[in-house]
């Protein structure tokens, strides 16, 4: 009877040690550039800047914002527009008649059955909006229709 008890204890011990958890194999691959953006940006910023989304008009924080300063890329802080270039277009998005020289890139965008010129940050490639030819005639005639979430305002020093 004593021997049976020992065998029982031994078999429990063996079966327990046999069930030692196998180490989980690492399946996570190297984080991609897009993964890094997902961490850095808010979901709204990611949707617009990286997936070329558009915020709803009249909802962004800068469409009626006319203080002195500069607007930088919300993702990489590249200076994009000055407040002097901003004008009240009533389209519901922040509108500028020009970008700071060399700060943006232009790409033809044929999505949604329209031919538009997409404007992206020259430094990080983030989507900013589109540029149209219906801006103020007395300056450049251009309207950089820009998403508020893609930019960040830095007030001019007093
Ligand atoms: Zn940028």
Automatic annotation (TrEMBL):
GO molecular function terms attached to this record: metal ion binding; peptide-methionine (R)-S-oxide reductase activity
Keyword presence, Metal-binding: yes
Any one GO BP annotation for this protein: response to oxidative stress
PANTHER family linked to this entry: METHIONINE SULFOXIDE REDUCTASE, METHIONINE-R-SULFOXIDE REDUCTASE B1
Keywords: Metal-binding, Oxidoreductase, Zinc
EC number: 1.8.4.12
Needed cofactors: Zn(2+)
Enzyme class label: oxidoreductase
Gene Ontology cellular component annotations, sorted alphabetically: cytoplasm
Record domain MsrB: where: 34-156
InterPro entries documented for this protein: Met_Sox_Rdtase_MsrB (IPR028427), Met_Sox_Rdtase_MsrB_dom (IPR002579), Mss4-like_sf (IPR011057)
Catalysed conversion reaction: L-methionyl-[protein] + [thioredoxin]-disulfide + H2O = L-methionyl-(R)-S-oxide-[protein] + [thioredoxin]-dithiol
Family per similarity comment: Belongs to the MsrB Met sulfoxide reductase family.
Name of the protein in question: peptide-methionine (R)-S-oxide reductase
Organism the protein comes from: Flavobacterium enshiense DK69
